[in-house]
Amino acid sequence: MRNVTDHIVEGESANRQLTISVLDKPGQGGANHIHRIEGLDISKNAAYEACPDEQPGNYDGPQDAAWIIFQNGPIREFGVNGVTQDALAAIVIDRIRSFQSGPFNCEANERALECFCHGLHHFQTRTRERIVRGVEGTNRK
Question: Cα(95)–Cα(113) distance, rounded to whole angstroms?
Fold first, then answer.
């Protein structure tokens, strides 16, 4: 197991309260697939309470961690078994756009939004090129 600390800003950053752990060994492509974020209490999140139908099933364990499980292996071979970085980027983009249309819009958010959109564009370009070459969803280049 190793920890990711790129989210921490020096000083009194609130992000210091979150611990991100990588739990598995790198897979076929060299990336890890299971990340755990600890140090949160989702029971205190008003949005979580506002959507009771969307809460995790009958999970009665601690509500102090979130898991991100990434796609592991080619989709054609293993099916969709995790989230992609493309999907996570789209979530972050949607969230920043929402902040930018609300009372917390700012230049820093606008620049970050541009970077995330640029990154997602490159992921999508790669996918389109793989579709054209007939290798999308496989371990072939």
Answer: 9
